[in-house]
Amino acid sequence: MSRLELPAAGAGRDEIFTTLQAMKARDLDVRDGRLFAYVYEPGAEVDAVRKDAYRLFLTENGLDPTAFPSLLRLENDLIAISLSHLNAPEGAVGSFTSGGTESILMAVKAARDRARSTGAVARRGEGNIVMPVTAHAAFHKAASYFDLDVRLVEVSPETCRVTEQAMAEAIDDETVLIIASSPQYAQGVCDPIPAIGRLALERELPLHVDACVGGWLLPYWARLGADVTEFDFTVPGVTSISMDLHKYAFCAKGASVVLYKDASFRDHQVFACASWTGYTVVNQTAQSSKTGGPLASAWATLHLIGDEGYLTIARQLKAATARLVKGVQAIGDLELVAAPDMCMFSFRSEAVSVFHLIDEMKVRGWHIQAQLSTGDHPANVHVSLHPGNLGREEAFLADLALAYEAAKSLPTGMLVNAMGDLLSSLAETDRESAGLDFGGLMAMSGISADSLPERMASINELLDVLPVDANEGLIKQFFAELFVPSRAPSAGGERT
Ligand SMILES: *Cc1c(COP(=O)(O)O)cnc(C)c1O
Question: What is the C-alpha to C-alpha distance for residues 166 and 178, in angstroms, rounded to an integer?
Fold first, then answer.
């Protein structure tokens, strides 16, 4: 079989869409309301509008806002609305980005380059960021991209919140940024931003609040009477905030903002280049040429739903979360990892394997997310609610109770036991150099590039007991096997 090539003759529109639709057949169903991760579905009406707006601006190029003033206007509107939403003072600025990760990359880069510009951290290879273990993986990515060390701070095992004392101990002369979340994704818990803000002021360090997942809806939670720890620009010490519009503002994917209280921070984010033979480049963010689709789509979504619309959605999600949190704790020994501050939470069990529980829910048509153990935190299950889930609470809980019973009788540790020798050698020898027999492992677990096993429990169990670097190495190899160039269909046969 040879590698796929461009067809000689172009295909018809119908044929193309038939093929594209067919490709979706094995995807999770984003409309079904049984998905508690990945999507934030606002319903058919909003979806139609955000798609139309996206299409309307698909072709415009954000590379040069002087050529497409509409895109400049859309971005400035979105940044103004976002700054107002988070009570930023006059003089605050921001940028529209493709997602939380890009917002975070930009905030970390700006902080690093600012520290270098003041001489606080002079050389390449110097500098660190200080953050709780609950901070998003995107900060590890930023540190890796921008050559910074990560100083991780443990959180309380009961509340999953970090304390300012623990943060204070991790700060040193090379720290360029301190980070906390409102809320962090895994348990939906807000860090004590006011206390960390005081620490930031005392140490004269910038503080980034990662409000990617919660920044948009938390203010509504507060308006509905919830006790929300302050996290916005009114908190002294907060210098930047990331907030995703493509999560709980229900915009199409590719929409986030990074906001700075003081415009001088953004100067360190922007890149300009006149030292090549082409057009002069000025990029606000990591992207250069970019579609106007996400901008227009986000603008349309925010204006369509409006303040009252978001308040209504928040009220519904808050009630549904309360119901689920109560219902989950009534099943067997299931317990919350920590009390959540928004509409995402996680739970664990000592009596049953959470990985089996997830598989058993999958058999019943529900998708919930595995979170592996880290440090003192045992493996657990994550649930994020979105409007598409509303009305499914009782059905979800009924099936969770059944899944719990079914999970009880399933054997655990099969793959882990089968791999026993390899695992102990990993524990004893240099972990990084200990090679895993990846092919053998894939075969043993029933994985191939085009078929994932229905049940993931044994694989999750294995990942859960592996040392972090072996785990990361394994999943990288696994994805390397998935991302292989397509083969041409065999003569007469269909591509699968
Ligand atoms: C989702 C998320 C991110 C990363 O955002 P992406 O849009 O997936 O790149 C960062 N921080 C938190 C708290 C998140 O929930």
Answer: 12
